[in-house]
Structure formats: structure tokens, C-alpha cells
Design goal:
single chain, 469 residues, alpha/beta, Rossmann fold, eleven-stranded mixed beta sheet, four-stranded antiparallel beta sheet
């Protein structure tokens, strides 16, 4: 019995000492300067902007930050909540630079830091899709992907019930080894913009295949607009990702909202065909909520989903039209991809042209360096002309038809019954009629999920799906 007590006493003492060591070592770790993972070697900071550096340290600790681009040192003091932040002005594009944090417990030095353009890339599988997942000219693109001016950060897939403060990920230079695992659309966007502007590009990829827009939308949106919560009930769970609202925003977007970005690229919508008619409302509020979180109205450029057999006759067309209507939100742009598709594959392998179209939109509207047309024809208005309708378009310069006749126009009368229409094109105006409709009221184009339209403008960009209803 005495031996037993002695052994127990020794075990107790050992556990006590281990606990003391653990607490002491934890205190030391907490005393050190730390930063979120989005700050590291090889990162890109937004050029000519006020950028926020932030992190944690010992409460009330005083330390210094040295920035190589201006050879200056600033003093920082941590608050009693163990958090610190400092706003710094970045110069024109350039680098590489270093940033050094010097505190009483540790020193951190970030090297190979570039100043340039930072773009957040998000959405579902067509944004996530990489060269390793098969793209056109795969071997050539990978072999020619070495570009130190392009830096890549992949946000690891996580969910959270409440907004987090950090993400998992690491900045990497774009090489033939790193590019194949990164978003192909984002890479081709960066390749074009970097070449045109001769500036570094930082890409932050926070995407997740099969995700619906609701999971990327903050909780307060659903609290303010309960109709969106009701529409979400139409979605069915899938095996690739949760459909629980807000959980990807909380884990993969919210932690980035203090990190200065130039804009957002978005490729999503396929997983919202089940509640297609509410997509514009949801998408508009999602974009607005992100801008509110970042506290400025950055450009938001997105890809219109391609024709595909989405499980219903019209759901794909409805989402495409809802995406078109979202262009009413300021500082948005849409790349139309109805000609970059196959209705049997939800993942078109031509990611080059998708990235190029997004890049041209950014170069025209955000950077003001591109003079060409970047939009396909977009529905403007319809006029009744007897038993026919005349449809006019924006971006209609040099409109033409690929093929012998214009396909996929339909018209309806007051009874709302739709019939295929004969269509003719003259000076940018499409005239449509159907013998079944004596008094036409509405017109729609490429409305079926699988409809691949053949109406283009002189920039060889396809016309968008639309309905005049």
C-alpha cells in the first residue's frame, strides 16, 4: 500500500511539472508576434494603397515593423486584447522587398514580397478546376507556367459556424510545379493582366466544388432577407460540400476581409439551378455583403454558367438570365461562355478563354488600358411591330449569325405560352415572329439549359441568354 501511494505521488508530481512547463511554454508562444497565414514570404500586397498589417502579440507589447520599399520603421503597440494592427502605404508595383517585425520575444522577416495587384478568386468547381484536372493544351501550359511575377495562395477548405480570423494556406511563386494545382481560370486571368500591365499579380483562391452561393454568403443577409432562407430550402445536400448557409464565408472569406484586394473573380451558379429564380437576389446581396465587409466597392467580375444538362429543361437558362440581370449592380462584369462548352460536360476544358475574357473586362473597366469590346450582346429592349417583335441589344456592333439561321428565339402572347420563333437580323436588330402568336408580348433567347446560341458581335463574343418578362 505504501509503495502504491509513493508511485501515485510521483505520477502526480510529474503531471504537475509537465502542466507547469506547458503553461509556461504556451505563455511564451502567446508573447511572440504572430500574423495570419495570408502574410508570409512571397506574398503580394496591393499596390498604391493603404494596406493593413495585423496579428497578435503579448498584451501591450511594443515592437517595430520595418518595410523595405521605403526603408522606414514604424512603432506598434498591442492592445490589451493581444491584437495589433497598423496601416501602411504601399508604393507602385515592384519588388522583391522585405518586411521585418522585431519584438521582445521574436523576430519575423518576410522576404520576396511583391507589390502589385491582388485578386480574390472564388466559386465552385469551375473556379477550382486546375490543369491537373485536365484543360486544353495542358502540357504546353504547364511547361510555360514559370512566372515569378504571379504568386498563388490557395485557401484550404474549411467550414465554420462563426467568422474566423485566419485561414490555412501558403504563398507560392507560380511555376510548372505549383501552377498545375491552382485555379486554371485564375491563372490565365493573371497571365494576361501581368503581361499587359507589367505588374506582379497575387491570386488568392478560395473556392470549393459543388458549393452553392448560400454557403459563401454571411449570416446577416439571411436574417435581413428571409425569402432567401426560404429559397435555400429547395437545395438538396450533395456529397462534395455542405449546403449549410454561411459556413464557407465564415471560414474561407471572413478571415481575408482585412487583407487589401483589388477585386474579385467569381465562377459559380451551377449548384443554384434548383432555386434559380432567386439567384439574382441572392447573388446581389452576397456581392454587396462582401463589399461591406471589405469597406469598399471593389470590382466583382464573374463568369456566366455555360449550357449543360442541369437536370431540368430551363433551370440553366434561368440562372444565366439571373446572372445577366446582376449586371445592374455597379462595378460588375460578366464573361459569357455559351460558346465555350459542351452540354455533356459541366467542366469545359477551355479555361484559357474564360480567364482571358475576365482579364479583358478588368483591363477595360478597372485598369482602363483596353479599348476593345469585352461584352457579348446584352438584351436592351423589345418593340411590338404588328405580329412581330423587334429586339435591340447593347454591344451590338457588327452582330452576325454563326450558321444559316438564328436559333433559340421564342415568343409568347398574353397567355404566357411560348413558341419557337423565326428570327432575322438587320443592323443589330433581331426581328422575331411565330405563326402561333398573333399578338406577341414577350421574347426570350437561349432559354433552355442546353441551348447554345449562335448570335455574336464583331468581337466574336456570344449574346447572353435573356427574357423580356
Amino acid at each position: 500500500m505504501l509503495i502504491f501511494k509513493s508511485v501515485n505521488t510521483s505520477i502526480f508530481k510529474m503531471r504537475f511539472y509537465l502542466l507547469v512547463i506547458f503553461i509556461f511554454s504556451t505563455a511564451i508562444v502567446k508573447a511572440e508576434i504572430t500574423l495570419p497565414n495570408i502574410f508570409s514570404d512571397k506574398m503580394v500586397l496591393q499596390r498604391e494603397a493603404e494596406v493593413l498589417l495585423y496579428g497578435w502579440a503579448d498584451p501591450n507589447e511594443e515592437f517595430e515593423i520595418y518595410t523595405g520599399w521605403n526603408d522606414k520603421t514604424v512603432a506598434v503597440k498591442t492592445g490589451n486584447n493581444a491584437k495589433w494592427q497598423v496601416t501602411l502605404q504601399t508604393p507602385e508595383a515592384g519588388g522583391p522587398y522585405s518586411i521585418k517585425f522585431t519584438g521582445k520575444g521574436n523576430e519575423i522577416i518576410f522576404t520576396q514580397v511583391l507589390i502589385g495587384e491582388v485578386w480574390l478568386c472564388s466559386g465552385q468547381s469551375n473556379m477550382e478546376w486546375s490543369a491537373n484536372s485536365t484543360i486544353d493544351n495542358k502540357e504546353f501550359e504547364i511547361a510555360n507556367a514559370n512566372n515569378d511575377k504571379i504568386r498563388l495562395f490557395t485557401v484550404q477548405k474549411r467550414t465554420a459556424l462563426h467568422p474566423l480570423e485566419d485561414v490555412e494556406g501558403t504563398w507560392e511563386a507560380c511555376t510548372s510545379e505549383t501552377m498545375p494545382d491552382f485555379s486554371a481560370v485564375a491563372y490565365f486571368f493573371a497571365k494576361k493582366v501581368a503581361a499587359e500591365l507589367n505588374v506582379p499579380i497575387g491570386l488568392v483562391d478560395a473556392s470549393w466544388g459543388a458549393s452553392c452561393a448560400e454557403v459563401w454568403t454571411p449570416e446577416n443577409v439571411f436574417e435581413s432577407f428571409p425569402e432567401l432562407a426560404n429559397a435555400h430550402k429547395s437545395l438538396k445536400p450533395n456529397k462534395w460540400v455542405t449546403i449549410e448557409p454561411s459556413v464557407l464565408y465564415n471560414a474561407m472569406i471572413a478571415p481575408l476581409t482585412n487583407f487589401k484586394i483589388s477585386g474579385v473573380l467569381w465562377y459559380q451558379g451551377e449548384s443554384n439551378t434548383a432555386n434559380a429564380s432567386s439567384y439574382q437576389n441572392l447573388f446581389t446581396h452576397m456581392i454587396t455583403s462582401w463589399r461591406t465587409a471589405w469597406q469598399y466597392d471593389f470590382p466583382f467580375y464573374y463568369v456566366q454558367i455555360a449550357p449543360f444538362k442541369y437536370g431540368g429543361t430551363y433551370e440553366g437558362g434561368i440562372v444565366r438570365d439571373q446572372q445577366r440581370r446582376t449586371l445592374s449592380l455597379k462595378n460588375t462584369g460578366m464573361a459569357i461562355t455559351s460558346d465555350i462548352c459542351t452540354v455533356d460536360d459541366i467542366h469545359p476544358q477551355n479555361k484559357q478563354d474564360v480567364g482571358l475574357r475576365l482579364a479583358n473586362i478588368a483591363l477595360k473597366y478597372h485598369f482602363n488600358t483596353f479599348d476593345g469590346e469585352v461584352n457579348g450582346p446584352l438584351y436592351d429592349m423589345v418593340k411590338v411591330q404588328g405580329n412581330a417583335l423587334e429586339v435591340s441589344f447593347h454591344n451590338d456592333e457588327g452582330m452576325y449569325v454563326k450558321g444559316k439561321q438564328i436559333d433559340h428565339f421564342e415568343i409568347s402572347g398574353e397567355n404566357g405560352v411560348w413558341y419557337p420563333a423565326k428570327a432575322s437580323l438587320k443592323k443589330g436588330v433581331v426581328r422575331v415572329s411565330a405563326k402561333e402568336v398573333k399578338a406577341p408580348v414577350h421574347v426570350r433567347y437561349a432559354w433552355k439549359s442546353t441551348a447554345i446560341g449562335n448570335l455574336f458581335n464583331e468581337a466574336d463574343l456570344p449574346a447572353s441568354t435573356f427574357t423580356s418578362e
